[in-house]
Amino acid sequence: QVQLVESGGGLVQAGGSLRLSCAASGRTFSRNPMGWFRQAPGKEREFVAAISWSGGNSYYADSVNGRFTISRDNAKNTVYLQMRSLKPEDTAVYYCVASGSLGVTMIRDDYDYWGQGTQVTVSS
User: Which residues in the chain land under pLDDT 70?
Assistant: First the structure.
């Protein structure tokens, strides 16, 4: 059974930082892209960041580009999201995702595996 388990969420003041982690189990994703989506209350789930299997290519939503950094450790089957200069509008449940295919994508439906989510709350 494949599981993606996120950790590292919490409450932080605006301007602060958080680092999310997502550990995968049940299969290896060392040859597959992984990423992060988020969903704020009353809003659609949206793309945040994605990374290729090698870590050589990464993609970001415009709203987080320059503030968030995605990385991965294939030996640990884990993907990370370093978030800096956090804003109240970053408040959301953050979901880790993994794809069963090879190409990196920003499309929600292209990701086959989803974590349960971790809450990030940024106070003003």
Answer: none
